[in-house]
Amino acid sequence: MADWQTLSDRINNVAPSATLAVDAKAKAMKAAGVDVIGFGAGEPNFPTPDYVVDAAAAACRDPKNYKYTPTPGLPELREAIAAKTLRDSGYEVSADQVVVTNGGKQAVYSTFQVLLNDGDEVIIPTPYWTSYPEAVKLAGGVPVTVFAGGDRGFEPDLDALEAARTERTKAIIVNSPNNPTGAVWSAETISAIAKWAVEHHIWIISDEIYEHLNYDGAKTTFIGAAVPECRDQLIVLNGVAKTYAMPGWRVGWLIAPLPVAKAASKLQGHMTSNVANVSQRAAIAAVSGPLDAVYAMREAFDARRKAIVAALNDIDGVTCPTPTGAFYAFADVTGLLNRPLGDKGTVCTSSSELAAALLDEAHVAAVPGEAFGAPGYLRFSYALADDQLAEGMKRFKQWASR
Predict the structure, then answer these.
(1) Closest C-alpha among 12, 71, 69, 134 to residue 273
(2) Can you give the residue ranges of the Aminotransferase class I/classII large domain (predicted)?
């Protein structure tokens, strides 16, 4: 490109999605005939429940779905999300507070666009989902990471959060059950963060997309129910992708105080307008329907969780705590660094190099911890078939043991 054909600093300062990059490379290798086992993408391998697909099929034949609808979403879907929030989260919101977005990522992006001015800071407990800091930067904000390691169960410490707070702190992200660690934060931690945010006039962005994926008696604490006084400064992010095995349907939402919801709808009106009507009709069936299919998927995830944690801890140099939420295992692989691995005797000095070598040599795709602000770790999604999981762990162990 010529000198005058420059791109914006805004986009040049943003890193690509590491999870999607790993998934894309794995898929390209598969397309080239390589037998790759993919632990990269957080994408349930189950089909979308039949009753949801049936609702979409009927919607395809209804002419009313061939036209634009209100930008913030079908009124019926916004009402259904409000009812679902009362059912699952335990507190009441109005349909006017709901904005339906093109997947959960648009809800994240829109939230920071309407909240942040240049230089505003957002505290991000770390390890974090890879898109959080990039969405903050795209809005002109400054990500402020606060690390909590495996010794704390990846649960943030309030003293550390307070130490990171400045006069520019505008918001904090809460993500429990957590991606990438699978940690479910305690009710005490969630409540303490909410009360701290209320005291210091800090927005709370609560990403609850893994809300129903809990194991070993762990429970999701809904911050808006735990500390009602925080609701005037609370934005909840959610969607159908994980709970209902609907990642490709692209339906997410945010729930916010009315001025924020109106601002997000205004922004969306200039970006994408409404979400595809057929997908919205499918989402109505999902959020209004029973959770039986969700619980069946959770049972399968639970069995895979136990299998992958056992397999990872059986590899010399790997330590993996047992997650109690979501569908990720977050393994400490520092014991594999700086030593020969595989038939080629490859020596990796970082988890990023390790992930690349594991994919190239053993044909196992995982996401390096650098993508989540946590060097020295690999994230493995166990949202894949049992036989694929077993084969992938077998390959990893054989490669790491040579």
Answers:
(1) 71
(2) 35-395
138 plus 185 within the same structural domain: yes
Q: At what angle do helices 277-288 and 50-60 cross, to 10 degrees?
A: 150
Please give the tally of structural domains in the chain.
2
User: Contacts by 63-72 with C-beta closer than 8 Å and gap 24+?
Assistant: 65/277, 65/278, 65/281, 66/277, 67/277, 68/273, 68/274, 69/274, 69/277, 69/280, 70/274, 71/265, 71/268, 71/269, 71/273, 71/274, 72/98, 72/99, 72/100, 72/261, 72/264, 72/265, 72/268, 72/274
CA distances from residue 253 to 80, 149, 325 in whole angstroms, order as listed: 12, 30, 21
Q: Which of 289, 307, 324 is the last residue of a domain?
A: 289
> Is 205 inside a domain boundary?
yes
Domain boundary among 289, 317, 337: 289
Strands 203-207 and 234-239: parallel
Per-residue pLDDT of the chain (402 residues; tens, 9 = 90+): 788 888 888 888 887 777 677 778 888 888 889 899 999 878 899 999 999 999 999 999 999 999 999 999 999 999 999 999 999 999 999 999 999 999 999 999 999 999 999 999 999 999 999 999 999 999 999 999 999 999 999 999 999 999 999 999 999 999 999 999 999 999 999 999 999 999 999 999 999 999 999 999 999 999 999 999 999 999 999 999 999 999 999 999 999 999 999 999 999 999 999 999 999 999 999 999 999 999 999 999 999 999 999 999 999 999 999 999 999 999 999 999 999 999 999 999 999 999 999 999 999 999 999 999 999 999 999 999 999 999 999 999 999 997
Give the separation between CA 84 and CA 278, rounded to whole angstroms.
Answer: 20
The overall pTM is greater than 0.90: yes
From the CB of residue 203, how many other CB atoms can be counted at a distance below 10 Å? 24
Structural domain range at position 339:
3-47+292-401
Note whether 261 and 317 are same-domain residues: no
| CATH code for the domain in which residue 283 is found | 3.40.640.10
Task: Give the whole-angstrom CA distance, residue 85 versus residue 302.
Answer: 25
253, β-bridge pairs: 100, 238
What is the distance between the alpha carbons of residues 99 and 264, in angstroms, rounded to a whole number? Answer: 7
